Amino acid sequence: MKKRVFKIGAVALVSAFALSACGGTTESPSNEGSNGSAPAAVDPANLETEISILAPSYADSSKSDWDAIIAKFNETYPKVKVNLQIEGWDGFAEKISARIQAGDYPDILNDNAFAASADAGLLYPIDEVVSADTIAAIEPSLLANGVGADGTQWAAPDIASARMLIYNTDLFEKAGIAAAPKSWAEMEDAATKLVALGDGTVGYGMPLGSEEAQVESSLWLWGAGGTWVDGENLVADTPEAVEAFTEMKKLHSEGLTQPKLEDNRQDVANLMHAGKLGMIVGHSQIVADAEAQGINVALAPVPDKAGGDGVTTGVTDFIVAFNNEDADRKAATGALLDLMYSDAMYEGWYKGTKLLPVTTSMIEKAKADATTDNEKGFLEALSIVKFLPVGNTQWDALQTSLQGNAYRVGTDDPAALLKEIQAQVDAQS
Amino acid sequence: MLKKARAATTVGRPRAGRGRATLVALPWLLPTLLLIVGVVLYPAGLMVYTSFFKYNKQGIRRSDDPIGLDNYIGPAGALTFPGVPIGRILLNTVVWVVVVVIITVLLSLLIAQFLNKPFRGRKLLRLFIILPWACSVVMTATVFRYGLQENVGLFNRLLVDTGILEVGRAWTKDPTSAFWIAVFVAIYVSLPFTSYTILAGLQAVPTDVLEAAHVDGATATQRYFQIVLPLLRPAIATAALINIINVFNSLPILRILQETPGYHTGHITTTLMYEYQRALGPGVSSALSVLNFLFCLVIIAIYLVVVRPTKEVD
């Protein structure tokens, strides 16, 4: 009986493998391009393979935006079948893990992190896949964000967003605040005046929930003049971090923030859109939504401790290419990405996301097209933004730990809390 | 063949006969066996195996050598990861299972008794009581979560408008209050199944026995505790056991109703497992899963020893 079970099991397994393998077909491997010229080496009309894309849903149009690129791609590469999978951001990491664990690597992945996959040796360096022209088209300050700790360009940014202080100008006027705050002290002062307006008005929205805690706490850390990066390591319990967390705690304990620090960005943005929030650090979508609700808002750099130039943080999402050990798929992947970053295709694609472009030409065009100060503000910030250390392999651990713990600054001692976050990061390295 | 096998048994070679009968039954059993091996034994084995290797968060195995008990008690182990209130979480798990199952069974006894009485509209009422069971647990939990939202939730509005609360509370953003709300929801969704199991048991209680007791002068209380309840024992045993396993492994209710991120004091081991899977990867998560399985076995063993649900049944 046992034998039979094994036999049938074996047959089932083999057929499962056969089924799942039908993507990577038998074409004899063409010449493996050692540099960015791989796509040019194959004849587009005869390249026959199948590649897959896994991308998040930025907006309702995300699927059709990708489909437009794929349709254009298939005009030159008629025999390449492109499978597109679009998933919501919620639980996106789990979807990726599921595919990685099943050994079904997407050829193109659009995500907000790359360090873990790069460290595990699953990726092609992106400059080996796409052409040198495509790399050159991306704004250098943004491109640098896709470099791993080992100095390799593992990922190419595909979309950016800058975070700035967004404030409600009507509430500011009502509370008699003349200008946007530049220092922490001015910020406390402004928030106190805003709260004094009553009617449930909140001074500053501080989302420390699992979605945004890493961005919010980084901003405060940078404002205190600190950084997570210490040589090759990331360190959470620095004196500057304690100072930053102490200031966050102060704002909360004085009743200047929303009552629950574990709120996510959307919870706080809702307050903004209801006209009940004075200040929030956010990106262009929050401004657009607020304006759509008839709330008047303006932008300023995020205040820092001493009232210097302020800090502006940038977030980019990335394109990474998984190594499926198939030269044809690699060639097709490179060709598709080159097409995607071309001005003709990229403009429609990035506009669909309602975020900011990453190619130099499109940033210039968007600046020229921008009609309001708020639109210009975010675009101008793009060249001076600071990034989270996403290329560091420890960032995943630190980010997860911040997402799970940062909100406790409202109740716990900042130094002890940061020690615990550090302990969680240490335990994983 | 079947005839031959039967003949063999009658001739008085029970051992050989039984072996043959098993062989004959095999083709019919095979699909079930395959299913058990495929969906129960293989995954369970894989889980134990996985728990001895190092994985990263994305589920990529980082070394080919087993790492011993590191996923259990290492620096980033399931029981020893810094910042995890593991004692409290184990206690929560016991409280969760015990409270939910006991209250569910007690309430179900009442409901079943009531539904067993003949009255107008009984069918309709029975239908209504089965509704929470017909709804998806995720949906039910989500309704409660939205209803308890601090600013716009309907339950909060009700509490404020009736003057019970001054301002709405963020019920699901406090680990303790969210835990008890989850207990309530878990009872709510477990009631239909339990009630119906017990109702089926009640309908099997022979009326002549009850009538005889009545004639002999037993009071209603005596009749219930000395006749009905003992006869219900198998039904209650089934209901309780299935509930213990169900409730113990219930992820969605707590997962949806707990809005606090991280390793807070409102977890049970099952939700902690999910948290580990996301933050530390499948190695540590599997380790906790193995422990969780043993823990569930212990709870069931205690139940079997203390309550002896099968007594007087055979």
UniProtKB/TrEMBL annotation, chain A:
Keywords, ordered alphabetically: Signal, Sugar transport, Transport
Pfam families, sorted: SBP_bac_8
Range of residues in the leader sequence: 1-23
CDD domains xrefs: PBP2_TMBP_like
Top-rank taxon, per record: Bacteria
PANTHER family: ABC TRANSPORTER SUBSTRATE-BINDING PROTEIN (PTHR43649:SF30), ARABINOSE-BINDING PROTEIN-RELATED (PTHR43649)
Protein name in the entry: Multiple sugar transport system substrate-binding protein
Species lineage: Bacteria, Bacillati, Actinomycetota, Actinomycetes, Propionibacteriales
Automatic annotation (TrEMBL), chain B:
Family: Belongs to the binding-protein-dependent transport system permease family.
Compartments it resides in: Cell membrane
One GO CC annotation: plasma membrane
Domain ABC transmembrane type-1: 90-303
Keywords from the UniProt entry: Cell membrane, Membrane, Sugar transport, Transmembrane, Transmembrane helix, Transport
GO biological process: transmembrane transport
Pfam families: BPD_transp_1 (PF00528)
Membrane topology classification: Multi-pass membrane protein
CDD domains: TM_PBP2
Protein name per its UniProtKB record: Multiple sugar transport system permease protein
Keyword DNA repair applies: no
Matching PANTHER family: ABC TRANSPORTER PERMEASE PROTEIN, INNER MEMBRANE ABC TRANSPORTER PERMEASE PROTEIN YCJO
InterPro entries, per database record: ABC_transporter_permease, MetI-like, MetI-like_sf
